[in-house]
From TrEMBL:
Entries under PROSITE patterns matching the protein: ROK (PS01125)
Pfam families in the cross-refs: ROK
UniProt KW Oxidoreductase keyword: no
Gene3D superfamilies named among the record's database cross-references: 3.30.420.40
InterPro entries named in the record: ATPase_NBD, ROK, ROK_cs
GO MF terms held by the record: fructokinase activity
Domain of life: Bacteria
Protein name: Fructokinase
EC identifiers of the protein: 2.7.1.4
Keywords, ordered alphabetically: Carbohydrate metabolism, Transferase
Group of enzyme by EC: transferase
Organism of derivation: Shewanella aestuarii
Length: 298
C-alpha cells in the first residue's frame, strides 16, 4: 500500500509518498497558504498530484504543529493559527473520500524514527525535538501515543527538574508558565543562557563550535546545557523508561551531546544507573513527513 505523508508547517507544506519498504516514491514542497480553505486546497492538490504521477491511490497522514482535541474534534494549540478550531481530518477526509489521520508533528517524528529510523524495531521510543523550541513525541510499537487528552509528549512545557536557586523563576515561556524545559534546553534557551553569562553567539551550533575551538566560556555554557538536558531526560526515563531516546531539531546536530550526556544522565536517574541509548535521528528534517505517512503503520 502506498502511504502519503503531509507535513503542514507554518511556511511550507510537504508531501512524501512511501512504498511498503519505506522507499520514497514522490516528494513535493509548496508554500503554506495563510488561511484555512486554501490550506485544504493545497493539501488536496498535493495528494491528487502524487496519485496522478504514481498511478495509484494511497493512505493519507498529516502532521501538524498542534493536535486535534479528542473532546471537540477540532485543531487546537497550533502556531499555524488559521487551522485552529477546524476539524482538519474530517474536512480532508470528506474531500478525499477516505479516512485521513492527523497527529502532532513531534509524534510523527517519533513514529518515523521508531518505524525505520534510528530506533527501528524498538518498542517504546521517546523522540525529543530540540530546535528553536522544544517538543517531543512518543511512539509505542511504531504507533503514536497521544494520550486521552491528546497531549502525550508535551515534554518542553514541564518545569526544568531539580532547579537551582539561580534557575528558579528565571525564565518566562510563551505558554504562560515560568521555567519550562523549553526555555533552558532549546536552541533559543541555550543562546539566551550563554548571552546572560556574557557570551555572544547566535546559535547553539555556534557555541558548540566555539567550544571545539577551545573557548572555555563556551565550554562552561555547554556543560550547563548538558546538565539541564540530563535532568530533563532523567524525568522521562524515571517515568516511562523508554527503550531509546532519539533527538531531532537543529541542536541535535551537536555531536558532543552524544558523548557527554551519558556521563551525566545516571546522576539523576533513580538508582543512579542508566544505559538508555540517546541517539541522533536518522532522517533529519524528513522525519516529520515520513512519520505522517507511517501513521498508517508498516
Amino acid at each position: 500500500m502506498m502511504r502519503m505523508g503531509v507535513d503542514l508547517g507554518g511556511t511550507k507544506i510537504e508531501l512524501v509518498a512511501l512504498a511498503d519498504n519505506g522507499d520514497e516514491l514522490f516528494r513535493k514542497r509548496i508554500p503554506t497558504p495563510r488561511n484555512y480553505p486554501e490550506t485544504l486546497d493545497a493539501i488536496i492538490g498535493l495528494v491528487n498530484e502524487a496519485e496522478a504521477n504514481l498511478g495509484e491511490t494511497g493512505s493519507v497522514g498529516v502532521g501538524i504543529p498542534g493536535v486535534i482535541s479528542p473532546f471537540t474534534g477540532l485543531v487546537k494549540n497550533s502556531n499555524s493559527t488559521w487551522i485552529n478550531g477546524h476539524p482538519l481530518d474530517k474536512d480532508l477526509g470528506s474531500r478525499l473520500n477516505r479516512e485521513v489521520r492527523v497527529a502532532n508533528d513531534a509524534n510523527c517524528f517519533a513514529v518515523s524514527e521508531a518505524v525505520d529510523g534510528a530506533a527501528a524495531g524498538k518498542g517504546v521510543v521517546f523522540g525529543g525535538i530540540i530546535g528553536t523550541g522544544c517538543g517531543a513525541g512518543i511512539a509505542i510499537n511504531g504507533r503514536v501515543h497521544q494520550g486521552g487528552n491528546g497531549i502525550g509528549g508535551e515534554w518542553g512545557h514541564n518545569p526544568l527538574p531539580w532547579m537551582t536557586a539561580e534557575e528558579h523563576n528565571s525564565t518566562d515561556c510563551f505558554c504562560g508558565n515560568k521555567d519550562c524545559i523549553e526555555t533552558f534546553i532549546s536552541g533559543t534557551g541555550f543562546v539566551r543562557d550563554f548571552r546572560a553569562a556574557g557570551g555572544e553567539a547566535t546559535s547553539g551550533i555556534q557555541i558548540a563550535q566555539m567550544m571545539a575551538d577551545g573557548d572555555e566560556f563556551a565550554k562552561q555554557a555547554f556543560d550547563r546545557f548538558i546538565d539541564r538536558l540530563a535532568r530533563s531526560l532523567a524525568h522521562v526515563i524515571n517515568m516511562m523508561d523508554p527503550d531509546m531516546i532519539v533527538l531531532g531539531g537543529g541542536v541535535s546536530n551537536i555531536d558532543a551531546i552524544y558523548t557527554e550526556l551519558p556521563k551525566v544522565l545516571p546522576q539523576y536517574v533513580v538508582g543512579r544507573e542508566c544505559r538508555t541509548p540517546v541517539v541522533k535521528n536518522l532522517f533529519g528534517a524528513s522525519s516529520g513527513v515520513r512519520g505522517a505517512a507511517w501513521l498508517w503503520g508498516k
